[in-house]
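Training component of the fellowship. As part of building independent skills, the fellow (R.M.) carried out the full modelling exercise for a liganded target. The chosen ligand was S-adenosylmethionine. The inputs are recorded below so that the supervisory panel can assess the work.
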Amino acid sequence: MTEQRWLPETLYDSWGMRMSYQVERVLYEMQTEHQSLMLFEHKRLGKVLMLDGATQVTTRDEFIYHEMMTHVPILAHGAAREVLVVGGGDCGIAEEVLKHASVRRLTQVEIDASVVAFAKEHFPAFTGPVLADPRFDLVIDDGMNYVGTTDRRFDVVIVDSTDPQGPGAVLFTAEFYAACRRCMTPGAVMVTQNGVPFMQPDELVSSVGILSRLFADAGCYVAAIPTYVGGHMAMGWATADATLREASVATIAERYSSAGRFATGYWTPEVHRAAFALPRFIAEAVDQARRG
Ligand code: SAM
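Fellow's submitted model of the complex:
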């Protein structure tokens, strides 16, 4: 009887904490030019992708993160035509963005072509509709280089990055955020993968501190993603238009209807609104970051 393999997530080793997965079958394992990539099957979570020892996406709970990183900024903006995704190699975010008929073009800038290539094979539910959509434009490049040089301008910027380690580290810097602002249209909004505040408080404080010096309205909203352990996940929020986050449930519901009321598993107009009501320890971290 072969020994059951357990695979630890090493993201929180400094915390002295490891979540481990019981591996049913390893589907893919490689060291890419940029990071270590591991894909395996889990009896409850389906397929699980890990990059550099950190959970990226699982088939079972991906909908929560992907819906909240996409429908919140697009429906808060209300007239998004040009959308930029930085990172997002598995194409889960892209699949949600392209559900919005108002979106004319989605530019995705991913540093690691191997992640997209393997997602074609292992995450067809994402890549199938995305790669067949003429509005989708994939650019293989470092996000820092792209936002620093492109002449395109975007209404919504979604930074679906790895954690601030390895290739993802530059996506949490002041240079990167300033370069993102450079290619945003007036009244545009940017959202960022900003970690789990209970486990990674410095990440949120650092990002919000930088964003609040660049944008009139900077902060975060939250969602609970089972395999991003440690409680709420924070999604950074930055825009020059402070009214966007104030959009009422009725307004959001109206925009959702005109967007075709596509199916969602987590996002609703009420959840959208409530996501900006932060638990006190997170609200205090955001205030501290804004005060600098
Ligand atoms: N949702 C996941 C999370 O919250 O951890 C992230 C998923 S997605 C797979 C992250 C993507 O960011 C990866 O495909 C990785 O290659 C890409 N990435 C990391 N650093 C990058 C950079 N500097 N420029 C563009 N893409 C980058």
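The panel noted the following from the submitted structure. The first helix runs from residue 62 to 77. The chain has a mean pLDDT of 96.
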